[in-house]
Amino acid sequence: MSMEDYDYLFKIVLIGNAGVGKTCLVRRFTQGLFPPGQGATIGVDFMIKTVEIKGEKVKLQIWDTAGQERFRSITQSYYRSANALILTYDITCEDSFRCLPEWLREIEQYANNQVVTILVGNKIDLAEKREVVRQRAEDFAQSQSMLYLETSAKESDNVEKLFLDLACELIREA
Ligand code: GDP
Ligand code: MG
């Protein structure tokens, strides 16, 4: 009997400006909660969640930046062996969208060229404060061959879908 309790194992890495909601997305997905207040720090390097897709067990190892993005100190080791990247911005923060090309340069420099990247516009529960229209983000994602999804970690909107879509795409490419 196999010792492995899964059919697939994928490493997923979250990147994007500080404050866009990366940690909240991970905690919503892995723990089913939205942490109150500021600073949703996870004191570990990664979280694990196993999902089932068409009868197959898919183990997701999800890496969060733990605040390192504030010091621009994310390096090759973080991107190394990532199967997928979740590049997150905040739809209520134009600045977080304008930084995306910088993140894409990092991806090009450090990630392997087979990596699957999904662009995520988070905080759609704050629709009245939206600064980045959906079409603009969709066009940008398409121009860079990225998938695109809008989420709310707070309202649990599209969070499950985000990780399941990514897992499906990774299986397809495996
Ligand atoms: P990170 O720096 O990218 O990890 O961002 P955090 O996950 O720490 O979230 C930063 C701030 O945004 C916190 O105050 C969160 O409560 C808030 N936040 C995160 N996701 C959402 C969301 O979907 N909706 C709303 N309204 N606030 C969010
Ligand atoms: Mg964080």
UniProtKB/TrEMBL annotation:
Coiled coil: none annotated. Pfam families: Ras (PF00071). SUPFAM superfamilies: P-loop containing nucleoside triphosphate hydrolases. SMART domains: RAB (SM00175), RAN (SM00176), RAS (SM00173), RHO (SM00174). Its main location: membrane. InterPro entries: P-loop_NTPase, Rab, Rab30, Small_GTP-bd, Small_GTPase. The small GTPases Rab are key regulators of intracellular membrane trafficking, from the formation of transport vesicles to their fusion with membranes. Rabs cycle between an inactive GDP-bound form and an active GTP-bound form that is able to recruit to membranes different sets of downstream effectors directly responsible for vesicle formation, movement, tethering and fusion. RAB30 is required for maintaining the structural integrity of the Golgi apparatus, possibly by mediating interactions with cytoplasmic scaffolding proteins. This is Ras-related protein Rab-30. It comes from Takifugu bimaculatus. The lineage of its organism: Eukaryota, Metazoa, Chordata, Craniata, Vertebrata.
